[in-house]
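Annex B. Sample input.
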Amino acid sequence: MRRLLTSLVMFASLAATAAGAQTSIPQRNVPEANLPLGQRLDQLSREIGAHETRNPPRDNEDIERAGRRAINERGQARLFGLWRVLYAYKSNQIPGRFDAWAKEARAVAARDHDQALATLVDLESVAYRHETRGFRAFTDADWGRFMLRSGSDIRLMAGIERVRHLGQVGRWAQAARLAADLTTDLEKRGRIAQPLLAELHQVHSYTLSDIGDKEGALDHMAQAARLDERDAFYLRKIERVYDIAYTAADLGELDAAERFAVLHHKMTAADGDKDLITWDRFLCARIAGYRNAPAKVLECLASAADKLAAPDRRLQVLMLGQRALAEAQLGDADAARTDLARLKAIPTTLATRDPHLENLIDAYIDQAEGRGADAFRKLDAWRRIDGVEADRDHSRSVAEMSSALDSELRAKRDDNRRLTEEVRLSRSLARASVVIALLLGVLVAGGVAWAVHQRRASRRFKDAQEHAEAANKAKSAFLAVMSHELRTPLNGMLGVGQALRAGQLTQDQRDQVDLIMDSGDTLLVLLNDILDLSKIEAGKLEIAPTVGDLVQTCSRLVNGYQPTAREKGVCLTFKLESEAPGPLMFDGVRVRQCLTNLVSNALKFTTHGKVEVALACYPEDEGRVRVRLRVADTGIGMNEATVGKLFRPFVQADASTTRNFGGTGLGLNITRRLVEMMRGEIRVESEEGLGSVFTIEMLVDAAEAADVPVWEAETGDEEAGGFAALQGRRVLVVDDHPVNRRVIRLFLDPFDCELIEAENGQQALDALEVEPVDIVLMDVNMPVLDGLEATRRLRRDPRFAKLPVIALTADVMSAQIKTCLEAGCDAHVAKPIDLRNLLSAMDRCLARGVARELAAGLSAL
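Annex B, continued. Sample output.
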């Protein structure tokens, strides 16, 4: 039966191929290579003009509709759909609509935890800055992130930007090779990737134009235009016509260029977008410049006079240069000199200066003012310099050109081989048509058997999928339960240890308690690492940026390791290597976790010398700040092989590392993943016996000056011998586990506190009705009524509006802390409970209550 089905499928495929073979070849419709260039341009002009939209959309409504449809999709459909929208507005430099769609797409990505969509917005935002600021925005780290670490879909989208960038910086061979690879990948993707394939043809045409293969460039532009015939945005069709006209002018085919320019003018006028009209005027002036018609150049640029008074875009700088040259050629020296001064004053961050153009304008000004000899000398000097630089550029780029052209020719040979194979297959299938016709009857009968087989396979697949989903849910539930169940005995062990350590102990007893505490801390670190790794792999761990002081966060963490460093005899320092950045948007919990892993590792593997932590922050475009955090030590160091496997999970340098220093090998793997989730990367440089340097580099958003969150501002050590506000207080302890309540009782016994215990939120509310208390310690996760809902109900009662409530929870994410405070809690203490943290939080809350009562009494007097 299986052999029969296989044969049927094979014959069905042959039949389908035979049916489509007759139409596959003519659809390519490639211009005949032996036609003169002018005729090929005429043919292309007629093809494109035939598909011109008769009632074009206004205000880019077709793009807006496509964007709204894409927002409601999921997965690849949404990703590729929003790429079209963002790319269209980016490529045509329409900032208002680009920013609006980037903001909406980023919000949708955050809502649905769609990392690919968030990465796409980052990619196109950098690409927008890259194109409008002289192709300087992308860094090597950006290319590494988008091309290597963001998935195959983002790689294809980033590849188009990469091809364009390589062509702009003169690395044409690399651009051609990458374009050939991307073309193969995109053709395999089918219809969903067709818009990307059209853009790749267009961008690759720029590279071919730069290396002098203008006709090859036109071929790729024609392919892009044909791919766009049916479903491309009107805005993109306009850009295709513009590029063909621009290249035709470069080739000297000015009549054809003007025909395309007329079509471009009609389409932009119908669209009505002011930015597109500016591009149209630039194209008009460029063709007039090739015709040596300066008066026509000024006529083309007349409507853009207000924009050229203070250019803020690269295109406007080019138009200002066109106008200055035309004015000088017509003898209007004053106007030309004014525009030349504007050109020279434009910052290089906006556009690179063109000294050849400036010298040429200057020479024409001399000629207009009667200094013909000066003009001749300047023109002659310009000619010699231009010739020398042209020769040097040619010598430097000839190898690149040769390699790029070789890549293009190889791609064309592959294309020709595919065409030949299609023709051969078509003829073979035509000869086999009689046999295929006879087998159609067999196929009909076999189709029924195949449908049954497919239905059974689909049912088995669905069952397997359901089992996999159930297993994944069971794993998540197991981790959640184990997290709670392991933390409860850990809380008891560490709590009792802290209580014992605070009492009167002999040295032997103190050593034994210290051993208990060290073992408990090690178990807690291991538990946190395993849970974090599981969350990351399941895609459940989120980055939650909040406003904070990064310098203070890092400084406070480093200072917390000073006792450990002094005990080992290691010098631990922190320094700021740049100007203070002010408030930033970052996830304080995850930054501290990454820095903790690096500092603790540095101290662990450094037995003498120093550990240096350095922070530097550098502003970038659009309100972003590049953060560089470096941890350097003089420890044991690593060889090259060890560095290569350093960031793998459960991996350490070798077995002796585990024996001598301990650890699970999870910390650096988690750190790398967290840094990548925060739009950054981590690097390591190390030499065996000399030490290591770990560097974290990431982009964060600048923030407006704001109040530091309460749970950060209130941290800090109390004065020695403090906690006076705790003495003799009545404390309501709400926790469903007796071990946790027992630990808190041990902590508060030295202060003669009276404890009232409750096992859930409802019992806590009932207890408050019976007798007053001074403060409530409220667990968050409890049966019957959880701590957050109990706190909300408590706050709705005017009698308890000022009663201090401290939340106790094992979740230390910023979002959970914020939820606790919004529910009405005054502070937050993490589990397992640290003695000092709990007493400090209680002392602050009670002291604030005393201060409020005192202020109320004074005001009453």
